[in-house]
Amino acid sequence: MDAKRLYEHLKMIQEPKGYYLNKDMDMTMPLIESLLINKERLGYMACPCRLANGDFADDKDIICPCVYRNPDVEEYGACFCALYVSKEYNEGKTEKKVVPERRPPEKILF
To answer: Is the model's pTM score more than 0.85?
Structure first.
């Protein structure tokens, strides 16, 4: 699957759920491409904004869409990496803020 097809696939699945792909394509397409790289490298689409350790069980919380996406979009209008956003975010009705990391510190690799 190429990045354009993945973009269309994610859009089709997620928009009916109220999660939109960021309209800033200069930001969105590199994130989509990174998901594909992670899929090839790890066997699953780990969040492109976090460091996966390569163990599916340990990384399960950051497989895109990660478990933090819903609360991030609800509270900030965007997920941590701003791949998924609210409709209001894309329409410029939500102030763009830095989304803090919700992943527990013990799961974050340095």
So the answer is: yes
In SS3 terms, the chain reads as CCHHHHHHHHHHHHHHHCCEECCCHHHHHHHHHHHHHHHHHHCCCECCCCCCCCCHHHHHHHECCCCCHHHHHHHHCECCCCCEECHHHHCCCCCCCCCCCCCCHHHCCC
Angle between helices 3-14 and 25-42 (to 10 degrees): 100
Q: What is the pLDDT of residues 19-68, one digit of tens each?
A: 999 999 999 999 999 999 999 999 999 999 999 999 999 999 999 999 99
